[in-house]
């Protein structure tokens, strides 16, 4: 069933676990995510980036997510991931998204606050939750590129002021993660995360969690309520297809080619739900 992102995240914060937010691009990815959620009895957030919307079209993205949510009994939210324009947010709300992220992290502090306030004004009356970001998370996320040099950690005092003034429902923080594949093991600033948690009263979000060691995630989930996973799904998808075609070089049936990819992604999602502590919480 499709619910507001706020409902899922508030329950996660109160329950002391994190909910996985998994990016979709096509039907097989949606099926892998939703089947894993139902089997694990886990709430889940399905999210679409700007790239996914450009690739599949917002109507297809929303339609796939709505159909998937209707087929299961666990709570499902549909989220815009890293939205960068007010018009895009409005388009998503009109198409039935139940959560939106407006990413003004590359703007000056006051401008970031202003754009989030504007989104909150239109989202909240429609029971759509708003995620914002403070601090710059390194790496590449579709159209957004942040170099390691420009990546800046979230300041706890600024986070407290930001949340109070914007009235956002969730805050993505920069504590050392990055989008895409890691070149080495990421070092997360847990002291900073604890301080942000102490000074704010909204669910926190960890972006760029693909490839972060399980031990680090186990610590982070004590303080964050939403953990984003995309790259690990892509890696599982690509490897499964490559392995299948290597063994079956003459196969041309897309159903047989994509089947193993769907199964591989589903395994990743199920493992993350158990790691995040959301399994059995629906």
Word description of this protein:
The structure is a single chain. With 282 residues, the protein is α/β, with parallel strands linked by helices. The protein has a single domain (5-234, 266-276), classed as TIM Barrel, CATH 3.20.20.70. It is 49% helix and 16% strand. It has 11 helices and 10 strands. It has helices at 5-15, 27-40, 50-56, 58-70, 86-94, 109-123, 156-166, 190-199, 214-220, 231-247, 254-276, and strands at 19-23, 44-49, 76-83, 99-102, 129-134, 139-141, 144-146, 170-173, 204-206, 226-229. It has an 8-stranded parallel beta barrel with strand order 1-2-3-4-5-8-9-10, surrounded by 9 helices. It has a two-stranded antiparallel sheet with strand order 6-7. Helix 8 (190-199) links the parallel strand 8 (170-173) and strand 9. Helix 2 crosses helix 11 and helix 3 crosses helix 4 (58-70). It is globular and about 60 Å long.
């Amino acid at each position: 069933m499709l619910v507001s992102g706020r409902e899922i995240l508030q329950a996660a914060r109160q329950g002391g676990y994190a909910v996985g937010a998994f990016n979709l691009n096509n039907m097989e990815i949606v099926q892998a995510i939703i089947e894993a959620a139902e089997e694990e009895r886990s709430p889940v957030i399905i999210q679409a980036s700007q790239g996914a919307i450009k690739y599949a079209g917002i109507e297809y993205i929303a339609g796939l997510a709505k159909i998937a949510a209707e087929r299961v009994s666990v709570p499902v939210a549909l989220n815009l991931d890293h939205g960068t324009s007010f018009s895009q947010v409005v388009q998503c709300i009109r198409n039935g998204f139940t959560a939106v992220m407006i990413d003004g992290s590359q703007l000056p502090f006051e401008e970031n606050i202003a754009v989030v306030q504007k989104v909150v004004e239109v989202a909240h009356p429609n029971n759509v939750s708003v995620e914002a970001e403070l601090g710059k998370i390194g790496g590449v996320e579709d159209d957004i590129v942040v170099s390691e040099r420009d990546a800046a950690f979230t300041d706890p005092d600024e986070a407290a002021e930001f949340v109070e003034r914007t009235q956002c429902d969730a805050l993505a923080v920069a504590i050392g993660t990055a989008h895409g594949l890691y070149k080495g093991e990421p070092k997360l600033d847990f002291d900073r995360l604890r301080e942000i948690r102490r000074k704010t009263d909204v669910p926190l979000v960890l972006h760029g969690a693909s490839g972060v060691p399980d031990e680090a995630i186990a610590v982070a989930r004590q303080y964050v309520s939403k953990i984003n996973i995309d790259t690990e799904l892509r890696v599982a998808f690509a490897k499964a297809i490559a392995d299948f075609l290597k063994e079956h070089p003459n196969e041309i049936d897309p159903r047989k080619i994509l089947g193993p990819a769907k199964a591989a992604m589903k395994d990743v999602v199920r493992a993350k739900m158990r790691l995040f502590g959301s399994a059995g919480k629906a």
